[in-house]
Write a structure and sequence with these properties.
Blueprint (H helix, E strand, L loop, with lengths): L1 H5 L2 H13 L11 H6 L1 H14 L7 E4 L11 E3 L2 H18 L16 H13 L4 E6 L3 H4 L2 H9 L5 H11 L3 E3 L2 E3 L12 H20 L3 E4 L2 E6 L2 H17 L10 E4 L4 E3 L2 E4 L2 E4 L1 H12 L10 H19 L10 H13 L3 H8 L10 H13 L3 H14 L4 H13 L3 H14 L4 H13 L3 H19 L26 H7 L7 E6 L5 E6 L5 H9 L4 E4 L6 E10 L2 H6 L2 H24 L5 E4 L5 E12 H15 L7 E5 L10 E3 L4 E2 L4 E2 L2 E2 L9 H6 L6 H8 L8 H8 L4 H9 L1 H13 L4 H11 L3 H12 L7 H10 L7 H7 L1 H6 L18 H11 L33 H7 L2 H4 L10 H4 L17 H4 L24 H4 L25 H18 L6 H16 L5 E3 L3 E7 L5 E7 L2
Helix pairs in contact: 2-5, 8-9, 13-14, 14-15, 14-16, 16-17, 17-18, 17-19, 18-19, 19-20, 20-21, 25-26, 26-28, 30-31, 30-37, 32-33, 43-44
């Protein structure tokens, strides 16, 4: 039995070894091949059990495009490790069964066949005088393979129903693409272990028809079709015949890749350029390789050279094995130059290696081992002087590179002529003037020649290099600032350091230190560590002057500071008496701010800034959002009436873009600019006698009062009310906003501060809106907390947003402070070829609701854990969405399956294989509905279960009889007399495409309601011009269903 051979333990183990040899990446379950191997016995036994019981179900396939397929629009499928093993197990058994039936014109995916053999055959045909060439390519072949027809063709050789059902399940595996989970209706994914064999099976009828006509003049490599002939007319006829054959296979030719030309003009075939003179690499292939080489332009000093070079050599070796030549190539960077030179030396092309080495100076670098490698290559070719320069350059980049030193010594010792040795040393010193051993050797050689003056100079230079190394300065060479000892009556030891630290707390992970120089310049330098008590002590003592960053990583503050200042130009030009008046006015301004605060019930405290003006400190009882604090400060400045003439007011922290960089100098320290201490003042402009005691009297302002002052008409929501507003009926959405700390913070910030900046709103837009209507509703609710909310404007952004959600990396880039304070704790699995995003919680919830994904975890503590069989998914509720199988069941019998007309391809005679022993001689194609789980025929609905055991003859009226289909070679399909009159083909195909897209969108009705309405309207316009609500198209049948309430549904069935 074929099926038993597939799930045998021996076959599964051999399939695993084949999978393991390729070291594949993990699939959607994130199980690596190493994890699978760690529990190999259990995993193989589990797969065997699932296959034997026919309970095996493949996991979703990750679909993506890579650099190779992006331009062509083709996609690659990434299956899980367990599914790869099953694919290989099926391939090992099926391959030998189909290989004897394949024809010599098929050069793809077969043992003993290759693209090179196809190119050689093409060259042979050209040499025979067949100089006209027809080249065609099947449009989107792997994406448009019809599953039903493919299973028919497999069933010609393999009669066992379990095998056919297994292949059907592999073909119908769900697809994960662009952060969404979708059904698979057509195609076989490139990247699947079975796809090459299945593609050959699917196109074998085409091979048969063309081989019978053209023999070895026809070549096929995968979906690339090529036909040679002596006359153009024969190819024009052949093109029509091929097109008709493709129609029978439900395929079409790609017009952009179809050409009929003469070889004298040159053709490109499988990467080779062919003409009457011979063959060579195609220009496009050369450009493609050069582009790949340009990806290695960057070579960092920390890169492991051997690993990077091995990657480039692997690329170039593959090229050389295929084209047998490196001559058309040119080095794009140092790595490609090294690889080309080494490969050319391996192949004996020394002249080519010398030519490429001349270009080494075009690629500057800072990698010592790369310079050493160049020296080795030059030395091997006998270019000693050039090699010496490269060794010296390697030593300059890494003075401790002993291999380079040894090579330099060897080249010096090999030089018999002492003058030549001196010349080589001078080459080294020119490249590396700090090479002490070179000067020592030079002194030795000059001494031998009696040139004692030169020898003494070389010796002194070597000694100077030694002295430089020994006398290298350590520590800070900048003179320390003078000690400010004049502190007046201030007793810094009386200040409570812990109280001071808590009152003036800012950003926890960093603080600032003030500096000033003798030229009058000053500023602050950032110190990347938390502020310590000993730092505060030095600040109060006058040894250093500190500042703090007011805004924390959570975008909150403990206080705000009003800075009343004299403009710098006025301060420098004003005479002493005018300056005193301005300073007095500055004090009056800050007192005015204090009185305005007192009117609102707030406490504000005055401080001498120590230079030009005054500071006003307003403390909060707890951390408050910076936006809320700034709004309060702005309102307070407006209430106080603004600055007096000639003064300026500033509020710290500063505005949106600068507030995280805002620094305020801590009080009670010495201002380095003026050498004056900053003390707290009374209203009449006198310092408090005991600054330490004053700090203990400071009163903080309650947060509820602040919120009431800023938003007098809005009552703050409680945490419970806010949580109730966020929680929705969608479990995935609730999980996303609960698990993602950043989203949770932004939702809370909108509620508490009534403000979100542009990037915060973008983050919510590109996460919440992907959760459908509930997500959009939550987005509106969140933005509505903000003062400037506008429904239409927000909705416009939702409708215009791009299809890709925001990534976790972009969130961390937008909010680095939040990333530090709220580290990511997300636990979702990231499917391959996607990226981490909070939106993946929606996918996880959907998968959990449908059927939990089996996963093979890595072994822990010696436990032999492995994948568990995936439970059968429950039947989805009928929400009005439409499937093709349901459509066939609900349509009248004549429209379900029209009796076929004679096709071009004789499927019945293509595979001349005997019936499998022990199987009944019935054709599996006549029992599609019960043998293939509905893959081809209709699915049994609940009311049809009683007829499930009927014989094929009793079901004949529904399926068009039990007699085997008869095929001829006529390429024309004649419509049945029962088929209603159809409109033009273009309109019919357009309607069919619209209907299929309509069905796809019904799967996600919540997020696609607008597009569904548009499609339904367009279909209605087409059907309104017809006399019937049923439309027959070349691809299938569409039917409009009118309901009593005026609504309309669309039913579609394929022509196959």
């Amino acid at each position: 039995m074929i099926y038993e051979r597939i799930y045998s333990a021996e076959n599964l183990k051999e399939a695993w070894l084949r999978v393991r040899s390729n070291r594949p990446p993990p699939g959607i379950d994130r199980v690596r091949w190493e994890d699978f191997e760690a529990n190999l016995s259990f995993n193989i036994a589990l797969l065997q059990k699932q296959l034997q019981e026919e309970s095996y179900k493949p996991l979703p396939v990750v679909i993506f495009t890579d650099a190779k397929t992006k331009a062509s629009g083709r996609t690659i499928g990434l299956s899980t490790i367990r599914d790869r093993v099953v694919q290989q197990a099926v391939l090992r058994v099926m391959g030998p069964l189909f290989e004897p039936h394949f024809l010599p014109c098929n050069y793809a995916y077969r043992p003993g066949k290759s693209a090179l053999l196809a190119v050689r055959q093409a060259s042979r045909l050209i040499s025979q005088g067949k100089l006209w060439v027809l080249q065609m390519d099947v449009a989107a072949f792997f994406d448009t393979v019809d599953h039903s027809l493919l299973l028919e063709l497999v069933g010609k050789i393999i009669k066992e129903k379990p095998v056919l059902r297994l292949i059907a399940r592999l073909l119908k595996a769900k697809i994960f693409r662009e952060m969404a989970l979708m059904e698979s209706f057509l195609g076989t994914q490139q990247g699947s272990g079975l796809s090459p064999l299945l593609s050959n099976i699917y196109l074998h009828p085409l091979d048969t028809a063309l081989w019978q006509r053209y023999k070895d003049s026809f070549l096929r490599y995968s979906d690339d079709l090529t036909l040679f002939a002596e006359e153009r007319d024969a190819l024009e006829e052949g093109q029509e015949f091929i097109n008709s054959c493709l129609v029978e296979l439900k395929l079409s030719a790609n017009p952009q890749k179809t050409s009929l030309s003469h070889v004298s003009a040159g053709i490109v075939y499988l990467g080779f350029y062919l003409d009457t003179k011979g063959k060579g690499p195609a220009k496009k292939a050369v450009e493609h390789l050069q582009e790949r080489l340009r990806g290695y332009n960057k070579l960092r000093k920390t890169d492991i050279l051997d690993e990077r070079l091995a990657e480039v050599k692997a690329i170039l070796r593959g090229w050389h094995n295929y084209y047998q030549s490196l001559k058309p190539l040119r080095p794009e960077n140092l790595l490609s130059l090294l690889a080309l030179v080494e490969l050319s030396l391996e192949s004996g092309e020394t002249a080519l290696a010398r030519q490429w080495l001349k270009e080494a100076q075009q690629f500057p670098h800072r990698h010592p081992l790369a310079a050493f490698r160049l020296g080795e290559l030059l030395s091997g070719l006998g270019l000693k002087n050039q090699a010496m320069r490269e060794y010296a350059r390697a030593l300059d980049l890494d003075p401790d590179l002993e291999a380079a030193k040894e090579r330099i010594r060897m080249l010096q010792e090999e030089e018999a002529n002492i003058h030549g040795a001196i010349e080589k040393i001078q080459l080294v010193l020119h490249q590396n003037p700090h090479y002490r051993e070179g000067y020592q050797k030079l002194a030795e050689y000059y001494g031998r020649l009696g040139l004692y003056g030169f020898a003494q100079k070389a010796h002194h230079k070597a000694m100077a290099l030694d002295d430089d190394l020994e006398s290298w300065p350590s520590g800070d060479a900048v003179p320390a600032q003078e000690d400010f000892s004049s502190q007046g009556d201030f007793n810094y030891q009386a200040v409570d350091l812990e109280l001071f630290h808590s009152l003036f707390a800012g950003r926890r992970e960093a603080h600032a230190k003030q500096w000033a120089d003798e030229r009058g310049r000053w500023g602050f330098v950032r110190v990347e560590r938390p502020l310590k008590t000993k730092d505060i002590y030095k600040h109060l003592a006058g040894d250093i002057t500190l500042g703090v960053y007011l805004v924390t990583a959570k975008d909150t503050v403990r206080y705000i500071v009003f800075d009343v200042d004299i403009p710098k130009r006025a301060f420098l030009k004003a005479p002493p008496h005018t300056l005193a008046e301005m300073q007095h006015q500055a004090h009056q301004d800050v007192v005015r701010l204090k009185h305005a605060a007192e009117q609102l019930g707030l406490a504000l405290y005055l401080e001498d800034s120590g230079y030009k003006g005054r500071h006003g400190w307003l403390f909060f009882s707890e951390e408050v959002p910076a936006t809320l604090a700034l709004r309060l400060g702005q309102d307070l400045m407006h209430l106080a009436g603004g600055p007096a003439a000639g003064l300026i007011w500033e509020l710290f922290p500063r505005g949106q873009s600068e507030r995280h960089q805002s620094i305020i100098k801590l009080p009670l320290g010495i201002n380095r600019k003026s050498n004056r201490r900053s003390l707290f003042l009374t209203d009449d402009n006198h310092p408090f006698p005991d600054q330490g005691l004053f700090l203990k009297t400071i009163r903080t302002n309650p947060i509820d009062l602040v919120q009431k002052l800023v938003f007098p008409h809005q009552d703050p929501l409680t945490q419970q009310e806010a949580a109730s507003a966020w929680q929705t009926r969608a479990p995935g959405l609730f999980k996303m906003v609960s698990e993602c700390r950043v989203l949770h913070h932004l939702l809370a910030k909108a509620r508490d501060t009534h403000y979100l900046n542009h990037y915060e709103r973008l983050c919510l837009l590109y996460t919440l809106s992907f959760a459908g209507e509930e997500g959009c509703r939550l987005l509106h609710q969140t933005i509505a907390y903000c003062i400037n909310y506008d429904y239409q404007y927000t909705q416009q952004h939702i409708e215009r947003r791009k299809n890709s959600p925001i990534s976790c990396a972009k969130i961390m880039e937008y909010f680095p402070e939040l990333a530090e304070t709220l580290p990511c704790n997300c636990k979702f699995q990231v499917p391959p070829r996607s990226y981490p995003s909070p939106v993946l919680y929606l996918l996880a919830a959907e998968l959990e609701a449908a059927a939990p994904l089996p996963k093979t975890p890595a072994p822990q503590s010696g436990d032999d854990t492995s994948a568990s069989p995936s439970p059968k998914p429950e039947a989805p509720a009928n929400d009005g969405a439409f499937s093709q199988t349901e459509a066939k069941s609900s349509l009248p019998s004549p429209l379900v399956e029209t009796p076929p007309e004679p096709p071009v391809l004789n499927f019945a005679e293509i595979f001349a294989a005997e019936e499998a022993a022990g199987d009944p001689p019935a054709d599996p194609l006549t029992q599609k509905d019960t043998d293939l789980n509905g893959e081809k025929g209709t699915r049994l609905l609940p009311e049809e279960k009683e007829s499930k055991d009927l014989s094929p003859k009793e079901k004949a009226p529904e399926h068009g009889g039990t007699a085997e289909k008869k095929f001829t070679t006529s390429p024309i399909l004649t419509p049945s007399s029962e088929t209603p009159q159809s409109p033009p083909v273009a309109i019919a195909l357009q309607a069919y495409q619209l209907a299929l897209e309509y069905l796809q969108l019904r799967l996600d009705q919540a997020s696609s309601a607008r597009r569904l309405q548009e499609l339904s309207s367009q279909l209605a316009e087409i059907f309104d011009g017809l006399s019937d609500d049923t439309l027959q198209t070349p691809a299938g049948v569409i039917r409009r269903l009118r309901h009593a309430d005026g609504s309309v549904d669309w039913l579609v069935t394929s022509a196959g």
